[in-house]
Design brief:
single chain, alpha+beta, four-stranded antiparallel beta sheet, 4 helices, 9 strands, 29% helix, 38% strand, elongated
Length: 160
């Protein structure tokens, strides 16, 4: 995939690529002040760009939504020959009792026999978080275990 990066003097950086199934380009503008805009453009007509400002929370959520399925698919492929082992991504909801608390506080491994193998936050993959890792609301947690263990892990993150 070819990502075109364009400096926007005084504004920031535009990063975009062409979509394969439609005559459009999609990308983001990273503003110097830290803001992010989602952009959607008709190929050959940059004046027809739709630009959507995103809050920091919205940008993190969108990045997690886009990143989690690829990571989970990769882990599923790696575990496909292991009977009884599944991989699932699950959010840390805003009202989770573990938002702003340490992973170790969940006692996830002890209670469910499932393991948190990664956390997606703001488009970044945080691999193999330790017990000192602090969850944030909106994190996408990637968990490996049995189906029962994954259900129990989701319940812990949601209800405690």
């Amino acid at each position: 995939m070819n990502v075109e990066v364009t400096s926007l003097p005084g504004i920031g950086v535009r990063k975009e690529f062409s979509l394969s199934k439609v005559d459009r380009r999609i990308g983001i503008v990273d503003h110097r002040d830290g803001g992010t805009d989602l952009i959607f453009t008709k190929v050959g007509d940059p004046d027809a760009t739709v630009q959507i400002p995103l809050s920091a929370v919205e940008a993190r959520t969108l990045a997690s939504l886009l990143g989690a399925p690829q990571l989970v698919a990769q882990l599923r492929e790696e575990h496909r020959e292991l009977d009884g082992v599944s991989t699932r991504s699950m959010p840390v909801p805003p009202n989770s009792p573990y938002a702003s608390r340490r992973l170790g506080d969940t006692e996830m491994r002890t209670k469910t026999r499932a393991s948190i193998v990664a956390v997606l936050r703001a488009g970044q993959v945080l691999a193999s978080p330790g017990p000192e890792f602090v969850f944030a609301s909106g994190d996408m947690v990637v968990v490996v275990g049995t189906n029962a263990g994954l259900d129990a892990a989701a319940s812990i993150l949601t209800d405690g």
